[in-house]
Amino acid sequence: MSVLRFSANVGFLWPELALPERIIAAGRAGFDAVECHFPYEYDSADVSAALELAGLPMLGLNTKLGLNGQDDFGVAARPDRVAEARQYIDEAIEYAVAIDCATINVVPGKTGRTPEAEATFRDNLRYACDKASAVGKIILIEPINTTAAPDFHCSYLGDALSTIQAVGANNLKVMVDCFHTQVMQGHLLENIKTALPYLGHIQISAVHDRGEPDVGEIDYGYLLSEIDKLGWSGYIGAEYKPRSSTEDGLQWLADYLIKRNTN
């Protein structure tokens, strides 16, 4: 019997709408939760009101990417920008508390993967975990593929797990984005099994167009069934870029919900 629950990543879905309206749309579409990237331009009270109206929890948000945006792709592993990184961590945790969001993804940035950068990342993660623990929040780190983000500090699952083990905080977990992990490593099911003791969230999309998880080289019918068998009790994040309108691409979710509700 399938018990998997799905979260709409409203950073990508319904891009034509304001964030509160995306949350409402996700509830109407049948999602069990929502997650986002950078909600900071919206008043937290408006986001909270939309979550309450939709009856959905907010699962996660990201720290800001940096003053240079996508060129930085985060600053938490940048030795020359520690103060900026901690400002973003503080801001993200404060916003997460205001909207009752469960997790914060701390984005490391483009670093050259030097030992100094890794030491900085670990120090900033310890800072984030201490702050987050005090308010009952989880810190996530996410490997990103090098095509999407050249020179990104963390691109392999093994590197993320090494960082988590070195930091040693109970509230530090890994987010496995199946798109990024498939591009970098493949062997998704085995990698998810390896990550399971440290797993904080799973995201899905098609490889290679990052669209709906219904075509491409990942057989999500098989993979999600196997994840279900592992006893995964978290959510599956639909973090994809719709090929046309979001509504037109939701048949994959409708099919799964029918299967779930008839088992």
| Order of SSEs | EHEHEHEHEHEHHEHEH
Q: Tell me the total number of β-strands.
A: 8
Give the overall silhouette: globular
Main sheet strand line-up: 2-1-8-7-6-5-4-3
Query: What proportion strand?
Result: 5-15%
Structural class: alpha/beta
Give the overall average pLDDT. 96
Radius of gyration: 17 Å
Number of helices: 9
Properties at a glance:
alpha/beta; TIM Barrel; 8-stranded parallel sheet; 8 strands; globular
Give the topology, please.
Elements: E1 5-9, H1 19-29, E2 33-35, H2 44-54, E3 60-62, H3 82-99, E4 103-105, H4 115-133, E5 138-141, H5 157-167, E6 172-177, H6 178-184, H7 188-195, E7 199-204, H8 220-229, E8 235-238, H9 251-262
Parallel strand pairs: 1-2, 1-8, 3-4, 4-5, 5-6, 6-7, 7-8
Helix pairs in contact: 1-2, 3-4, 4-5
Kindly describe this structure.
The chain is an alpha/beta fold. The chain has helices at residues 19-29, 44-54, 82-99, 115-133, 157-167, 178-184, 188-195, 220-229, 251-262; strands at residues 5-9, 33-35, 60-62, 103-105, 138-141, 172-177, 199-204, 235-238. The chain is built from nine helices and eight strands. An eight-stranded parallel beta sheet has the order 2-1-8-7-6-5-4-3. Helix 1 packs parallel to helix 2, helix 3 (82-99) runs parallel beside helix 4 and helix 4 packs across helix 5 (157-167). The model has no long low-confidence stretch (mean pLDDT 96).
